[in-house]
């Protein structure tokens, strides 16, 4: 909300209060000020000019040579390119060595051989946005009033010496979306009176509106106020300078004297109005109803809108002529030919208005106020004010009476509260008199019985309904900065992480230490993606009102979120990626219960793991790299000897020959594998490897702590063994036998070679292992190691019929 300091001072005495001080006070009492703008800042030597002569430039088909009176003895010759420049007009002149917007300096010069002593300026060159420049001057220069004195600074004529305060209005303070609302607030802060005055409405007693107009509202509960007035014999023309200045400083483009009055009243009262051309309505009947399927309305912006029963429309009894609370129709627009104006003042259902504005992407100043609420007490006053001002500026006459289809004047809200409750909540020691004075400053009626205040709140403050609202008002006006500061009381305990939190933090550290980067994704996804990479899918948890089709259900896996992240990066030529995400998946527990949340961690890797350099060759991500990271993770949490990787084909989104489940104590705790080529093609990503683990399942397992041991004093001994086995036998199966048969001195088993070929025979492979033996208490002998190796060989032969090579 842009608030003009000059305009505000018409209703509240601001003498001795600077704009900066006022802004600070407003911010301290809950109306946050985002900034103050004085339009004339940075501009200098810009004056009123009187064009005495204007002739075409001899060397140009679009330039004019003007002789302009700028308050000095001699006329200034200025070359101007504006198409609307003409003699006997007051214009804006930037003198030599002046500064216009953008700190641009204007100098004497020549244009096509003719001397130009300055520049005739448009409003845009003074810093006005093109969105607020009056339509008549959008492509040319701006004309000042005829009584402007040549040579005087233009700033006071355009109210550019005003201070425009930009206030950020929270949704609960919609009463401050008007100059009158802000005036009430300022008056309460400074303990001053507001004086809005009264505009006298002169009516034509011989001509009543009821003879020309009949209004019906079919759904009164959706349109609680609907009233109309008529002004006849108006002349549609340019608004006076003061009105244009007000609108431009408030960020609204002046159009004409009729439309500008509706916008002026919108800003003053916070009451949206709409003006119809009576003759173009083609009917003496107005019906307010829901739209019908198939109906069309061309709005003021020239766009044809398809209406439905979700929208409220204003009709002439048959055809829609306006979209209620949002925008009028093009067919009933106010133009230069308009002679009779019908003015509408109403209040529309906030929810319906908001949905319609969203449907048509037509959020406006009017719709935003209808959505948040308007002061029901001033609907009639705003309408009468607008009719009177239109008649004055348009030289017309207001017809007697008004048509009232529905009316809701609002009602006072009565809230009781005690002095003790206020002081206890705020931590203050306010006296009864101080509290009483604050309520009166806010314009509330108040009665005191003992320690209990009975406060009557007028309809203009519809945000106040309960005790807490009154306490907030007392705190605001008393001053948040004056409230006492106290430290919390009670027993102090040192903070710390729970075992589960520390467990999750350790996992993050291990994964990041392994070179992965954390990703954070939406928990909402599509129905298809939610069920990918899930072995036993549960019923989906769907949202009733999703943001979009891509965010309709809660996920049951994290892998698809990471694949979406990889897709995004790969599309932007970032191809070497290693991500992990720790987050919740959601399992439905039926319609009556909330979904179950389970904490998972997922990993995804693609591209190169090691770039090519003079030291090392490039290394691509593969299954065993990701498996190694998981093994390192399991080792760090005390599960390194309990994890089994078991091949699986239960996940269609994974490559059937390059995927495995992770088992801990026989329970599936996660999955690892290469993304199936078809799945990768669907995501448009290269070869990618993923894994996902159930964190809660890992946390609940019987994990071994770290057992610190002294460095062994006795040497270790190594033995290698090469085995010829069936290609169906896995490394995991061989390891289990070796570790079982190796005896108590076997410390480590490492696979260092795998070979398959025709020389070995069909269905055969060679696997070579290195076994490390060590005794912590004595030096091992060859006999002890040989004996252990013999047991290993016997066990392997018995279990898998291996051939020791």
Automatic annotation (TrEMBL):
Kindly list the places in or outside the cell where this protein is found, as annotated in its UniProt entry.
Cytoplasm
Membrane-crossing segments per the record: none
* SMART domains named in the record: B3_4, B5, FDX-ACB
Q: Which of the seven top EC classes does this enzyme belong to?
A: ligase
Q: Where is the TRNA-binding domain?
A: 40-155
Note whether Transmembrane helix occurs among the keywords.
Answer: no
Biological process, per Gene Ontology: phenylalanyl-tRNA aminoacylation
Going by the entry's taxonomy, the superkingdom of the source organism is recorded as: Bacteria
Q: What cofactor does this chain's UniProt record say it requires?
A: Mg(2+)
Binding sites annotated in the UniProt record for Mg(2+): 463, 469, 472-473
Which GO MF term does the entry hold, naming one? Answer: phenylalanine-tRNA ligase activity
List residues of the FDX-ACB domain: 712-805
Give any Pfam family that matches: FDX-ACB
Q: Which family does it belong to?
A: Belongs to the phenylalanyl-tRNA synthetase beta subunit family. Type 1 subfamily.
Q: Indicate the quaternary assembly.
A: Tetramer of two alpha and two beta subunits.
Full protein name? Phenylalanine--tRNA ligase beta subunit
